[in-house]
Amino acid sequence: MRGDGLKVVSGSCIAVIGGGPAGCASAIKLIKEAGKKGIRIKVIIFEGKDFERHYNQCVGVLSQPITRLFEEGLEMPFPGHLIKREIAGYVLHRPGSTLELSGESGTYATRRILFDRFMLQSAQDLGAEVIRSRVTGLEFNGDSVHIYTEDKFLKADAVVGAFGIDDGIADALEQASAHTFIYRRPPKVLDTIVAKVHIDLQVLQERFGNRIHAFIPLELRRIEFGAITPKGDHIIMNIAGRGLTSGDMDGFIAYPPVAGLVHDLDLSGLDYFKGRYPIRPASGICGDRFAAVGDATGLIRPYKGKGINVALETGTKAAETMIGKGLSAAALSAYPASFHHLYADFLYGNIFRSLVTVSIRTGFVDRVLNRAKDDPNLKDVLFKVVSGEGTYRDVVRKLSRPEELTALGLGFLRNLPVALIRR
């Protein structure tokens, strides 16, 4: 070991568990920030997934401020060559009606497998070492972190946890951190199921265009929301909810608003890919010689997602804090403090999610969508929700204005007893 206590010095070794966008962002920023100080460090990325073969359950939508996160955060050009389609807007579907939403979103569709390869290669080009092995255990031993993998044992000065929603690594970390800090994985997650459908380019453009088609299938009780996203030569269908099975995706495909768009496509032999994403923050996301980044922090906001943005932002901030302040728990406490705006918005996000749940159970959501067709302010609120722009605080405040409460609130309250009975 060649560290100097809890400061990063030349010869320090930092291990990154996970080679996705969050882990790679951390590695890239660690090397760049250390270089600015004339410090030569060793960064090792552990990644067991083969990006050539393994499918990523993320839909692959990049939304603002994605360009700023690259250009200002990672200090590298935004990889525009990875854009497969620029998203011009959204279409919300309910049986018998649609609502088109558009605005200055700056949203792009990419292939996650290509995006992940680009990020990992960028980290390697800067000097990061990649070990194709899965981490199985950790020990925090005061002056170092001991890392067990499927085929190696390594000592590092600090660890960046970019392992997403991996229960095995989370279990190991919770046990290892119990005597210093206590990392607790995100307490709540949603299941996701994703399917990829290749489609004729002319049909793709004419039927789906450059819009993400979103669905609120209140008739399918386990699905909170679903979407169809056009890519370069295919579409991605995805659903999210609790306790999802392949039968739920079958039901989504047969759901009339979805079936109207895909009924004549070749869906034979369709592969489903299942994943999860957090809807509540984790606790203990940093401590002596450790910081969690990306999905492992649980800082994914309900409905908004923006997982890649959170990955880049948390990865960048963790690296800046480690190099600039140190590796102790006290030094790293500045890291979660930099996300006060996200933590503060979770209260409003949960309020909004509860309102949506009740509205779906009562069918009141249809009234909201119908009103939005003639209400620019309400339409703008819905656009901000589906595009990920703005904060839930602003959304809740706009919905709480007297005119909106008068127009929507009374109807909502009339339907509330029905929702409570259905619970």
- Using the coordinates above, name the CATH class of the largest domain: Alpha Beta
Sheet having the most strands: 8 strands, mixed
- The beta-strand count equals 17
Overall average pLDDT:
88
CATH architecture of the largest domain: 3-Layer(bba) Sandwich
Keywords:
FAD/NAD(P)-binding domain, 17 strands, 15 helices, single chain, 6-stranded mixed beta sheet, 3 domains, 8-stranded mixed beta sheet, globular, alpha/beta, 24% strand, 423 residues, D-Amino Acid Oxidase, Chain A, domain 2
Write up this protein.
- The longest helix has 23 residues, at 340-362.
- The protein has helices at residues 21-36, 66-74, 112-125, 167-176, 201-207, 246-254, 256-262, 307-325, 329-332, 334-337, 340-362, 365-372, 376-387, 392-399, 402-422; strands spanning 13-17, 42-46, 61-62, 83-94, 97-110, 129-131, 135-140, 145-149, 153-156, 158-161, 189-198, 211-215, 223-230, 234-241, 272-278, 286-287, 290-292.
- α2 (66-74) runs parallel beside α8 (307-325) and α11 (340-362) packs across α14.
- It is 40% helix and 24% strand.
- A hairpin with a 2-residue loop joins β16 (286-287) and β17.
- It has an eight-stranded mixed beta sheet with strand order 3-5-4-12-13-14-11-15. A six-stranded mixed beta sheet has the order 6-2-1-10-17-16.
- The chain has 423 residues and is an alpha/beta fold.
- It has three domains: 13-58 and 112-187 and 279-338, FAD/NAD(P)-binding domain (3-Layer(bba) Sandwich), CATH 3.50.50.60; 80-109 and 189-277, D-Amino Acid Oxidase, Chain A, domain 2 (2-Layer Sandwich), CATH 3.30.9; 344-422, no CATH class.
- The protein contains 15 helices and 17 strands.
- The termini are far apart.
- Residues 410-423 have low confidence and may be disordered.
